[in-house]
Amino acid sequence: MAQQDTDQQHVGVLPVDDEGYVIDTEDCEEREAAWRERGTSRPITVVGNPVLHKECADVTDFGEEFQQLVADMFASQRTAEGVGLAANQIGVDRKVFVYDCPDDEGVRHVGVVCNPKLVELPAERRRLDDSNEGCLSVPTAYAPLARPDYAEVTGQDEKGNPIKVRGTGYFARCLQHETDHLYGYLYIDRLSKRERKDALRQMAENEPRYPVVPND
């Protein structure tokens, strides 16, 4: 089964390394631009909107309409100057996120993950990083949040091919953060009540630098 899965990786959109993980560091500028230029930037949905607080529906149709959604997500991510964006952050109930994010070595990663699942790491591989975290759906707010400094995600690419993605540091945080979104969790849900209140205060006191959908 493992060998079959590895073979399947090679029919995907991105090449894979010897361990079957996607190589998402090549032609980043060209790939991101190709998506973004076909897309239309949409306003960002903010905390309080119901679509952000429930598990999204699986992606089962990878056709033209879905490809346009991914393009719109890349366009929206660029407008908001983000490093990752989940579909529900532009109000769409689908399990897909895009990313354009550097890792700890400053290497750029660009890709699409549908129906992601975080791989549970053994205790000996869980080294926590308590850096600040922010979210486009909680604009202008930041708080320290401990997450593992390495992450692996399994899922599908934008054409439905099985993929594995891994990252370190900031990119690992991005993979965990965006996967959380698609299961109805914001990073502030992982904070203490006091820290969450402070993050929401930061958001209320400042103006977002990109268009958002106000909650009625």
TrEMBL record:
Belongs to the polypeptide deformylase family. It catalyses: N-terminal N-formyl-L-methionyl-[peptide] + H2O = N-terminal L-methionyl-[peptide] + formate. SUPFAM superfamilies: Peptide deformylase. Its cofactor is Fe(2+). It is an enzyme of class 3 (hydrolase). Binds 1 Fe(2+) ion. InterPro entries: Peptide_deformylase, Peptide_deformylase_sf. Keywords: Hydrolase, Iron, Metal-binding, Protein biosynthesis. GO terms for biological process: translation. Fe cation binds at C135, H177, H181. Gene3D superfamilies: Peptide deformylase. Pfam families: Pep_deformylase (PF01327). GO terms for molecular function: metal ion binding; peptide deformylase activity. This is Peptide deformylase. The active site is at E178. The lineage of its organism: Bacteria, Bacillati, Actinomycetota, Actinomycetes, Kitasatosporales. Its EC number is 3.5.1.88. Removes the formyl group from the N-terminal Met of newly synthesized proteins. Requires at least a dipeptide for an efficient rate of reaction. N-terminal L-methionine is a prerequisite for activity but the enzyme has broad specificity at other positions.
